């Protein structure tokens, strides 16, 4: 028989599932799918380039991530594809396995591992990340998005990868990029960027949002079309100023079906017995799964309709996506905050946006790659810069600062660590700081102490134990008992405790044997027999009752 709680959960799940596709939001979903598609094209190529893989593998991963995972996932707003956090993992796999086809086999096996994680209910891991760390992750990514777009805004486009590392350990870093960028100004790129940013800010004004015609036109689409128009006009009027080469999107162009097939790479199944393939697969599966779970958590927080994604189902969907991506020659895929947030900001509310995103990517890559190659990077960088600011608004820093250091320090530490290391390392550092405050609060709230002077002059020390008294509270309680003055009364109130650790109970029992020699009267107030029975039943633990009765 189902409990009321389970019935309510099922009803909520059905409601959420029904909202994953809702054609009442079709207009916003179309805007979100189109804009996220435009942003995704150069980023897919950039990640493939940075990973040392064939450029077209990034496009394949983008198509598979959006369409296949979009079909199997129950997330309404997540868009999956190749992600910068997996660049290092892919680079390491290529180096250890010696060939990209062998890495493709590892990606297929990683998908199998992810499906196994889903059936093992590993999706619960995301519930253990504090909201301050999730917000720090979003803000860190937002700040890096802003920083990474500045060189593109002034016309320096040597690095088009969607990197999220401020100070990488090797190669060119962001400081060098700024130095090079501001030494290579491009007038056309700066003009397009200024015009694009002005339009994006203008479109946020209330009168535009209320305008009958303008409110239905995506600002990002206007920016892209205008950027293409200005650059094509410059080619005619002032060809020496026009943008070309890596200042524009550079998509591989296939002029025949045979040429298109040559862009695909197949897995090397002869490596199936190679132990290093399985090691690489496990690495890809772990990193991709953790990033997917964290991204889903963050995207659900951004969801205006506040829906929650079943995380175990998401792991299975990600696994299916990685199996197909590996089979067709694509990079590993995971849920991506940047593209998802671009889609949300453009008005997307259901997974129709993700499906449209992938469909447009597939159709345009096959049919009109030349048109996409006319888009200036300066236009796309403007869109990403505004998206970055929306992920890291000043109001978020101000709000968490007002909530106190318990919330603010894990948040700001996560932001700083992501900027100075990488995404996963930054989250781990933020989690460590958050865990410190959790342990500290647990230590502080394990007990409260009052000292009262009685009429006969004998001090009364009253120790009220908290609801959950763990071994972390043992040191504080032992210190209180040890420092209690002779000829006093100590009253330990455990009536409100649902759990007292065995170590704490042993410490109280041991103190009882020495208290008499110091003329200390020890009173330990326990729950009554009926209260013990009720609590033990609620905790489904007879051992709780036995431990409390021992003291």
TrEMBL record:
Coiled coil (residue ranges): none
Record keywords: Membrane, Transmembrane, Transmembrane helix
GO cellular component: membrane
Subcellular location: Membrane
Transmembrane listed as a keyword: yes
Signal peptide feature range: none
Lineage: superkingdom: Bacteria
Entry-linked InterPro entries: SLC26A/SulP_dom, SLC26A/SulP_fam
Key word Cytoplasm present: no
Ranges of residues in domain SLC26A/SulP transporter: 26-412
Transmembrane segments: 55-72, 84-116, 128-147, 180-203, 215-234, 277-299, 319-338, 359-388, 408-439
Membrane topology, as annotated: Multi-pass membrane protein
GO biological process, one term: transmembrane transport
PANTHER family attached to this UniProt entry: SULFATE TRANSPORTER
Protein name according to UniProt: SulP family inorganic anion transporter
Organism from which the protein derives: Fibrisoma montanum
